[in-house]
Amino acid sequence: MKPRSTRFNPKRRLLAIDLVEARLASLRQLGEQVRYGGNPEHKRSPGDFGLVPPAAPRAGKSLCDDAGIVDRRTALDLLRAGLLLGLVSDRFEGDWPYNVWMVTDEGVPLEAQWEGPGVYHGYPMPDADPLREVVMARWTERRG
Asked: Rounded to two decimals, what is the model's pTM?
């Protein structure tokens, strides 16, 4: 088996706070429209995600199941929370941020990636990801 790369995309950055504040109204609107698509590579159990194939965990991929996310509603609620708090990337596809970050109630940081207009799939951030601590700090700061 090929060893998993420990390289992370260096282009991933959270949008600067002043730009988050300027975009907050539009991010809230996006939160009302966003959908969770899912990716079978990040699921051990298909739950109600409706994925094809139903579940196909790939070696080395972080699994949503391990973060306690086993249903679409939970995934969507977390995705919306990330948008509403402005934990978004500085890269956009039209109005949509390329990445959205959020943290579960249990303290697991998650990353969602743009699939298409208004659709994302997400996964737990690996411990070795250097952006993990930045996301945790911003989440704590924004939640007050």
From this structure: 0.84
How would residue 55 be classed by pLDDT, with cut points 50, 70 and 90?
Answer: low
Separation between Cα atoms, residue 41 and residue 98, nearest integer Å: 19
The CA angle 12-122-54, to the nearest 5 degrees, is 145
Q: Are 101 and 14 in contact (CB under 8 A)?
A: yes
90-133: pLDDT as tens digits: 999 999 999 999 999 999 999 999 999 999 988 999 999 999 99
Contact 118, 33 (CB under 8 A): yes
Say if residues 94 and 79 touch (Cβ distance below 8 Å): no
DSSP SS3 for 91:
coil
Q: Which two tokens stand for residue 47?
A: 């739950």
Question: Domain-by-domain residue ranges, the chain?
Answer: 17-143
Residue 13 is which amino acid?
A: R
